[in-house]
Specification:
By secondary structure, the chain is of the alpha+beta class. It is 34% helix and 16% strand. The protein is built from eight helices and nine strands. Strands 1-2-3-6-7-9-8 form a seven-stranded mixed β-sheet, sandwiched between helices. The chain has a two-stranded antiparallel ribbon with strand order 4-5. A hairpin with a 5-residue loop joins strand 4 (101-104) and strand 5. The longest helix is centred in the N-terminal third of the chain and has 23 residues, at 33-55. 20% of the residues are buried.
Length: 282
């Protein structure tokens, strides 16, 4: 694809890498930097239109405005100097970017992942089947340090699927409901998502009755006499344990059995008769 301006100051090296900042790779030539940026925008827009036309899409998926709005990376392959027109030509481009996706495995289980995605891939029709596509794709894999089976491809055409099958052996495709395609091996050796620990239950205050129950459990019951005798007291009688509970109980029983005194200071009749009989006998 040819352009009416010199591509060397715009694209620089053979493979130009462009991100969302749209900075021209070249630094030489008398052209002003603002003009270089505008020329780079023109290159990106024209490549996006050519790719959409080749794939039969109603609107381009690649443009300078879309590049600025997303964190995508564009790899542009330029024709070598001395070939084609004096101002240079563009062979094709490849756009990739990371996306958070929900993907299905072979068992139909949902998996959340953020893989590197192939978003747009185009080689000029007159230069296809010359090895340029593999050269550009391989450059991207090395720059991004990713294996081909780790990629997710957005709406791949039949040509792209045949390209991946021929050069990288990606034959077992796993279609997704979101129009992406992944391949066998995408989930292999992938670390399992970390499991969240169960939420801690709030510490509840100890209820009053539980305190008494715990104190009761800590107390040791005193054994009955004579097992509570204190050993080792020579010359003395054995010492019993505490008799206070028994004395209190005895006093209570005696109080119940003893006759009640009247409030007027007089004794009951039975007691007076018993006392008088005692005096008579004497």
């Amino acid at each position: 694809m040819e352009f009416p301006f010199d591509l060397s100051p715009v694209l620089g090296d053979r493979v130009c890498v462009v991100d969302q900042h749209l900075r021209p790779a070249g630094r030489r030539g008398p052209t002003h930097r603002g003009d270089l940026e505008q020329q780079l925008r023109t290159v990106i827009d024209e490549l996006g239109k050519a790719s959409a036309k080749a794939q039969g899409l109603p609107t381009p998926v690649t443009s300078a405005a879309r590049m600025e709005a997303n964190r995508h990376v564009l790899y542009i392959l330029r024709a070598p100097d001395g070939r084609g027109t004096p101002k240079g030509a563009v062979i094709g481009f490849l756009k990739v970017g990371y996306k958070k996706l929900f993907l299905l495995d072979r068992n139909g289980a949902h998996n959340e992942a953020e893989p590197l995605c192939v978003l747009d891939f185009y080689i000029h029709e007159s230069l296809q089947r010359h090895g340029y596509g593999r050269q550009l794709f391989q450059h991207m894999l090395q720059s991004e340090r990713v294996d081909p089976w780790r990629l997710a491809v957005d709406r791949p055409s039949e040509k792209l699927l045949a390209f991946l099958r021929k050069h990288y052996g990606l034959t077992d495709a796993i279609p997704q409901v979101n129009n992406f395609v992944i391949f066998e091996g995408f989930f292999s050796n992938r670390p399992a998502p970390p499991r969240r620990p169960p939420p801690k239950r709030p510490e509840e205050e100890i209820k009053p009755y539980s305190l008494s129950e715990r104190d009761f459990l800590r107390e040791e019951a005193e054994p009955p006499w004579p097992f509570n005798l204190t050993p080792g007291r020579a010359g003395g009688s054995p010492v019993r344990g505490s008799l206070r509970p028994f004395l209190v109980r005895r006093e209570t029983r005696m109080d119940r059995q003893s006759p009640r005194r009247r409030t007027d200071g007089q004794t009951p009749p039975q007691q007076r008769r018993a006392s008088s009989l005692g005096r008579t006998g004497r």
